[in-house]
Amino acid sequence: MIIEIKDLNYVYGPGTPFEIKALNNINLQIEEGDLN
Q: Which of 1, 13, 22, 34 falls 20 to 30 Å from 28 in CA-CA distance?
């Protein structure tokens, strides 16, 4: 099984004065056997 994340974005407090981008276009791929 492969776990894959593509173009992950997350913004804290969107639309508020405290809005801050925490994650910007994160990509991650975990192949079978990478984690034991």
A: 13
Record the pTM.
Answer: 0.68
φ/ψ of 10, rounded to 5, equals: -150, 135
Sorted by where each begins, the domain ranges of the chain are 1-36
Q: What is the rounded CA–CA span in Å between residue 3 and residue 28?
A: 8
* Digit-coded pLDDT (tens) for 2-31: 999 999 999 999 999 999 999 999 999 999
Beta pairing partners, 33: none
Q: What do you get for the CA distance between the two ends of the chain, in Å?
A: 13
